[in-house]
Each structure stands twice: as structure tokens, then as C-alpha cells.
Amino acid sequence: MHNLLDIFSNQVLWCAVTAWVVAQAMKIPTYWLVEKKLDLTRFFGSGGMPSSHTAFVVSLAIMIGAVEGFNTPLFALSVVLAAVVMYDATGVRKETGNQAEVINEILRKVFVDGEQIADDDLKELVGHTKVEVFGGFIVGVVCALAFILL
Questions:
Q1: Nearest 5°: CA angle at 107, between 103 and 108?
Q2: Model pTM?
């Protein structure tokens, strides 16, 4: 029987969580640089620079490779998972954001008669550009290297 408290010593898991937290925290200053608005809620949002999902799975894959071996089926599985997450972030989720943007614009035009509609009716920041995914990739690599080397 395994001890549930062993989760606190799981370096692979903690590296992935750290990469996610770092990427989410980085969204606040990058949003401020682009939009010139401080929005602390970006820490909890999806979309934006860098991709925290990408940082999460890339750091996970690298740590699995470092701990279990880069020639193991577990490492292969984690790389495939990371590839699917990155593809989804730039594909399906990005298209969902594009559609939300168009629908929000239509709603703005339809209700020109003065009826107020909030800009956040549909969430537009759900996916990532390739640059945002690459940013998440870099965060994931750096966090994994920090865990491995420190």
C-alpha cells in the first residue's frame, strides 16, 4: 500500500505545478505590457502569453524523462500528451476564441440601440497563438531544468 503523503515528495508533479504557476503569473505582466491595463485575474484565466498548459505538460515530460529515462514508454506517453495539448491550444481552442470574438462583435452591432451587453459574454481568451505556446514551452523547459539541476 502506498502512502498518500508521498505526493508531497513527488518532484515530477511539483515541477509541473511550478511551471504552471510561473506561466500563470507571467500572464499578468505580459497582459499589462500589451493592453496597458493591470488585470490580476489573468492569473486564473486561460489563454494569453505564455501558455500554462504547455508549460505544465512540457515540464512534466522532461521530468519524466530525467527520472524514468528518455527511452521509456512513460516518457513517450508524456511527449505525445504534450504534443496533443500544444496542438489543441493552437488549433481547437484558438478557433473557439476566434468564434467568440466574432459572436461578441455581432452582439455589439445588433444591440446598437443602447442596450448594454458585457464584453465578456463569450470568453475570447481560450486558445493560444503559436508564439504563446512557444512561450509556455520555454517556461516548461526552464522549470524542468531548474528542478533537475538544483
A1: 115
A2: 0.71
Q: Cα-flanking dihedrals φ and ψ of residue 129, to 5°?
A: -80, 170
Helix (H) or strand (E) holding 45: none
Q: Are 60 and 28 in contact (CB under 8 A)?
A: no
Q: Distance between CA 65 and CA 136 in Å, rounded?
A: 18
User: Quick check: 40 and 80 in contact, CB under 8 A?
Assistant: no
d(CA 23, CA 85): 15
> How far is Cα 53 from Cα 81, in angstroms, rounded to an integer?
11
**72-99 pLDDT per residue, tens:** 999 999 999 999 998 888 777 667 777 7
